[in-house]
Amino acid sequence: MPEDIRPSAAQIPQTGEPTWYPPVEDDAEALRNQDPQNKGVRWVFFGTDGLRAGWSLLLFLLVFVGFALLDKPVLRATGMLRYAPHRGEAARWMQPPLFSHGLPFVFAMIAAWIVSKIEKRRMAQYGLGSIRGRGKQFSAGLVWGLLLFSLLILALWASHLLVFDARLLFGADILRWGLAWAFAFLCVGFSEEYLTRGFLQFTLARGFAGIAGTLGMGNRSRKVLGFWLSALLFSFLFGLGHVGNPGESPLGVWAAGLIGLVFAFSLWRTGSLWWAIGWHAAWDWAESFLYGVADSGNMIQHALVATHPMGKTILSGGLTGPEGSVYVLLTIAVTAAIIAVTLPSQKGSPSDPAYSPNVDALTR
After folding, report:
1. Are 17 and 268 in contact, with CB atoms under 8 Å apart?
2. What is the mean pLDDT of each run of 10 residues along the chain (364 residues)?
3. How many CA atoms lie within 13 A of 4 on its CB side?
4. How far apart are CA 286 and CA 142, in angstroms?
């Protein structure tokens, strides 16, 4: 394993985005300071922070939903939904994750880019800028996700709660399917992280902060409140999104919500989603392909090995998979501790108490 991505307690270099945090004057704050005699149409849409958070959210959702409604007709018209036999089995099995996660991520990025031009912000402020300077964070997330899930599997196996039945892939098929599923789960990581902790998290946080400002809260306090209220909401929605999975359990839903909060903690410390995306993708890949267990009740085809749970469901996870085991709660706690140790508060991140950007620096 290369030395620069070996798991350790060494701190990851500080490379925070310099302007992640909402400006000192949030949208709702402008309502209190605006001269009533000068109110006009522009005042309805713009505050001292530019486009108000509510309008930003509405515009984003309109563009995103518009693309989502058009995706299948366009794909069907271009023939991309038809997979001829010569394209191979891999293409057929990759179709669902690519369409269900890859395309929504692309649509979300396009919607965020359009709003960013109106808001005059850099895309990096929404948590996902260039990987340049973030490679170590992403790599560390990959390694920690793979390592922690492997330790969880080891604990279940050692406790006789998980049985390995047989090896399913051999030779070149291991590489072929391993890479195919790695790409699919990268799409899952990018899509789920950006849709729950990217543009929407940033914009709703500044909206909550602005409302708190009108109630008389101090600048720092209202921004902390805005971030964590938004994080709580989207973590709840992230967990709720797992309810419909076949085989999902209440503990699995709670675990999904809790890991969402932990991912928000990495965003809080760095102002970036790269670490969380790496962890998320590696965890899902190890879960579904490498160890062949259920991922929140979902099983994939062409996993490396076949397994089955044993014993009490609360311990083994049952049909939910390891995420339905009480053991996963310890894994989530360890993940939070790793973030606290290896991801120090970075300049320009939401956790930076000294950072106080001005409006001109964000809107120029």
Report:
1. no
2. 51 52 47 53 69 89 87 62 44 57 88 91 88 88 97 97 95 93 93 94 90 82 91 93 85 94 95 96 96 89 93 93 95 97 89 54 31
3. 7
4. 10
Proportion of the chain in helix, strand, coil states, percent, rounded to 5: 65, 5, 30
Beta carbons within 10 angstroms of residue 78's beta carbon: 9
d(C-alpha 154, C-alpha 91), whole Å: 32
* Paired strand residues for 295: 298
The dihedral built from the CA positions of residue 339, 345, 347 and 348, taken in this order, carries a sign that is positive
Q: Global pTM? A: 0.83
d(CA 350, CA 23): 11
Instruction: Find where tokens 């790269």 sit.
Output: 274
3-state secondary structure (DSSP) of residue 298: strand
The DSSP 8-state label assigned to residue 295 in this structure reads B
Domain ranges of the chain: 7-357
Half-sphere exposure of 231 (CA within 13 A, CB side): 18
